[in-house]
Write a structure and sequence with these properties.
The chain is of the alpha+beta class and 165 residues long. 18% of the residues lie in helices and 32% in strands.
C-alpha cells in the first residue's frame, strides 16, 4: 500500500468446464505461477485424474509448470511470459538475445552476430521460489575484445560474453 499499511492479499484460482465451476482454491502466493501446480495437484483427489486440457494466461507460463503438465499428460494452452511483450506493434527483436543467435545442434555451439563461435562451458542450476531446480547450459565467446559490436552485445567488464540457455 502507498501509505505503508500492510493488508492481507489472496490469490483465488477457479477452474471450469462447460461454464460450470469444477474447483476453486485460495492461495497466499502473489503470483499465478506458484499456484498452478498446487491447484492442479488437487484435481485428481476430486475427479480421479488430471484434466485433459488446461487453458491459462501468460501469468502461469514457467518451465516448472510446462514440465508438470508434460509429466501429468495434460495438454496445455499456456502462453509463455514474454508473449505479450513480443506481440506489441513496437516490439523489436534483440539481435543479441540468445534466442536470436544461430545454434548448431550437432556441434552444440552458438554463433554471435559477428560470427564468433560460442562454445559450451558448463551447466548452471538455479532454484525457483517454489523449489524447482532449473538447468541452463552456459556458452562463452572467447575473442570479444576489439569487437565493433561489443558495446551492443553486453555490458560486462569481462572480455568474453557468456549466455545461458
Amino acid at each position: 500500500m502507498c501509505n505503508g499499511q500492510t493488508k492481507p492479499g489472496y490469490n483465488l484460482q477457479i477452474s471450469s468446464e462447460n461454464q460450470f465451476i469444477t474447483d476453486f482454491a485460495l492461495f497466499p502466493n502473489p503470483t499465478d505461477t506458484l499456484t498452478f501446480i498446487p491447484f492442479l495437484g488437487s484435481f485428481p483427489g476430486r475427479y480421479g485424474r488430471f484434466p485433459k486440457r488446461v487453458v491459462a494466461d501468460s501469468g502461469y507460463g514457467s518451465e516448472e509448470n510446462y514440465r508438470f503438465m508434460d509429466e501429468a499428460g495434460i495438454e496445455g494452452f499456456v502462453k509463455y511470459n514474454r508473449f505479450h511483450l513480443e506481440h506489441r506493434p513496437r516490439y523489436k527483436p534483440d539481435t543479441f538475445h540468445p534466442d536470436s543467435l544461430y545454434y548448431n545442434e550437432e556441434g552444440d555451439y552458438y554463433i554471435c552476430p559477428m560470427g564468433q563461435r560460442m562454445s559450451r562451458t558448463g551447466t548452471l542450476q538455479t532454484r525457483t521460489e517454489g523449489g524447482y531446480i532449473s538447468q541452463s547450459a552456459c556458452y562463452r565467446a572467447i575473442r570479444c575484445k576489439g569487437c565493433p559490436l561489443r558495446c551492443l552485445c553486453y555490458k560486462a567488464k569481462a572480455n568474453q560474453r557468456t549466455i545461458r540457455v
